[in-house]
Amino acid sequence: MEVLGATPTRNLALELARVTEAAAMMAGRFMGRGDKEGADQAAVNAMRLILGTVDMSGVIVIGEGEKDQAPMLYNGEKVGNGSKPDVDVAVDPIDGTRPLAFGRSNSLATVALAPRGTMFDPGPFVYMDKIAVGPEGKGRINIEKSITENLQAIAKAKGRAVEDLTTIILDRPRHAEMIAEIRKAGARIRQIPDGDVAAALMTAWPDAGVDVLLGIGGTPEGVIAACALRAMGGEIQGKLYARDEAELNRGREAGYDFDKVLTMNDLVSSEDVFFAATGITDGELLKGVRYLGDRITTDTLVVRGLTGTIREIIATHTTDKLDNLSSVRY
Q: 324, exposed or middle or buried, with CB in 10 Å at 0-12, 13-18, 19+?
């Protein structure tokens, strides 16, 4: 891929908007129907179709499926039309499958690109401890410090009291001690059922009202969030998390360091990143898909690392024209 120079690199983020819009339009039909697998398969089918039209030679480094046996765009799968540039691809066809299946908020379709060889490959180790902040907290966090120390540092950077901060964390039994410490420190807590890509992005989206993401979530989601936060001016740090001693031993035998702090540069080592997310259900970040008979509307966030440009694209799609052009029916 080209590097910084007189001529800007091609903005593939705008191509990615087509990918996430398609996935969201297909998956949105499943809102509230209780069918996680059907929704995931619909999103994957649409995402794979449109990815195949993008001018790139892509290899999926971060795919979904191994963790929950869902339909997937699998790790190592080649996508794009085979032309330059050579890129790593990270996909989460539905960030928040369960919220979508039960008609809840903040379900997104997401995809990210970076130059070949620059994305962290977690292999089969799908969980990591994370902390993520927006621009004001960048450079102030340290995952090896206590939650209380991090909250104090973020509050100082924002010119606020800890009691004014809002944390966001997955609602999981493993977070009981973390939640107890957040409460003791005095910060507000928002617990969410799923969707920690959306949660990480909220920290860098002023209107979302979230100051910091904490807790153990998906490693694939961490890499995807790192791509977005690079362009949005935020920061994420993580450490691989082993669910049991056997997984820890397997990881160490494979050369993974569970004590290493994974910085932004470890998760994605290039500034030349692209990210897109389209709302499937309504949330603090984006509106969900609207079906209006002969039209469908979508709300998409598009970011580009080299320029730091953040776009929000509100699109109206004409269903009969889409159906005439596409092999999938929206």
A: exposed
Rounded distance between C-alpha atoms, residue 222 and residue 197, angstroms? 7
Q: Which of 178, 172, 167 is nearest to 208 (CA)?
A: 167
Q: How far apart are CA 136 and CA 172, in angstroms?
A: 28
> What tokens were used for 51?
């990815």
Looking at per-residue pLDDT, the higher value among 233 and 4 belongs to: 233
Inter-residue contact 302 to 276 (CB < 8 Å)? yes
Q: Tell me: pLDDT of 211 over 90.
A: yes
Q: What's the pLDDT tens digit per position in 239-280?
A: 999 999 999 999 899 999 999 999 999 999 999 999 999 999
Is 2 a residue whose pLDDT tops 60?
A: no
DSSP string, 99-110: HHHTT-S--EEE
- Which amino acid, 110? T
Find tokens 């694209």 and name the residue.
313
For 149-177, write each residue's pLDDT tens digit: 999 999 999 999 999 999 999 999 999 99
- CA-based nearest residue to 182, from 156, 133, 130, 146: 146
Q: Give the distance from CA 108 to its chain's centroid.
A: 8
* pTM of the predicted protein model: 0.91
Cα distance between residue 18 and residue 43, in whole Å: 13
Tokens of 102: 């039960």
Q: Which residue has the tokens 């450079």?
A: 139
One-letter identity of residue 234: G
Would the pLDDT of 65 be above 70? no
What gap in Å lies between CA 54 and CA 16, rounded to an integer?
A: 8
**What's the confidence (pLDDT) of residue 64?**
62
Give the span between the Cα atoms of 232 and 279, in whole angstroms. Answer: 18
Cα–Cα distance measured from residue 10 to residue 264, given in angstroms and rounded to the nearest whole number: 23
Strands 86-95 and 108-115: antiparallel
- If one counts every other C-beta atom within 10 angstroms of the C-beta of residue 253, the result is 8
3-state secondary structure of 190: strand
